[in-house]
Amino acid sequence: MSNNEKNVEKTVLIERRGQIAVVTLNRPTRMNGIVKQLEFELRDAIESLDRDPGVRAIVLTGAGRAFCAGMDMEQVGNLGADDIRDVGYMRPFDMNRRPDYQTRYSYFAASNTPIIVAINGATAGLGLVLALYADVRFASENAVFATAFAQRGLIAEHGVAWILSHIAGQANAVDLLISSRKINAAEALRMGIVNKVVPHEQVLDEAIAYATQVAETVSPRSVRVMKRQIWEANFQSLGEAIAYANEEMWHSFQQPDFKEGVAHFVEKRKPRFTQV
User: Fold this and answer.
1) Domain ranges within the chain, ordered by starting residue
2) Which tops the pLDDT comparison, 224 or 154?
3) % of the chain beyond a pLDDT of 90
4) Which end of the chain is more exposed for a tag (fewer CB within 10 A), N or C?
5) What is the pLDDT of residues 163-186, one digit of tens each?
6) Packing angle of the helix pair 238-253, 220-232 (nearest 10 deg)
7) Which long-range contacts (CB under 8 A, 24 or more apart) does 9-18 make?
């Protein structure tokens, strides 16, 4: 390793807390603005944690006063049109997942591990894209949200028109995208963009507590299958979703976690799920 490599500060930090991994975007002086190093480090972090059977939930947050204010503006001016086609971001995350979830940002959905976001401040542009591709979103009462793309002369990037319409509805997606107006946490909650708003100093603790509940009280196999069901449902008819669920239900009945799920309830004790 060269001296230059040794001196490069990590833009993504990982902290293990038992079966929980806390991933922190770590460019606080730049409001965690996205640069290529951060993109690659975040991708590597999510992939490595998803492969770790000891990790049952991931909490993603930002250092400092922002979650992520989008692409670092110092980098935006140097980007060429071909950046959007950079194949370095397009390697498959999980070959068993549909191509829709193999792209530069949608890979969160390909992770088998639930990703819970603790939105601790400003969330705009690509920062909002990251948050929307996660599974559950907790927001600080101080959080502010904006799409921002139209204000930069850009368009709805990386599938955000699709994912925002699915989460918040078409009317809200149109509003936020074409106006680029800022909304506060309370309005984001009303639109369904976040699941819960909490006092600022509690947002990370709330997300970790939720992740801990998932890690300690439910079958990780069930979570993995249900996360896939939810994301696949975006492309299925009701009949296809039912057929998929029936097939997975048949497999569930054959698993040790089903037997443990019944046993711990009957015996009135904490579960000891083992499958991932």
Assistant:
1) 12-215, 219-267
2) 224
3) 65
4) N
5) 999 999 999 999 999 999 999 999
6) 170
7) 10/41, 11/35, 11/37, 11/38, 11/41, 11/42, 12/38, 12/41, 12/42, 12/45, 13/63, 14/45, 14/49, 16/55, 17/208, 18/212, 18/215
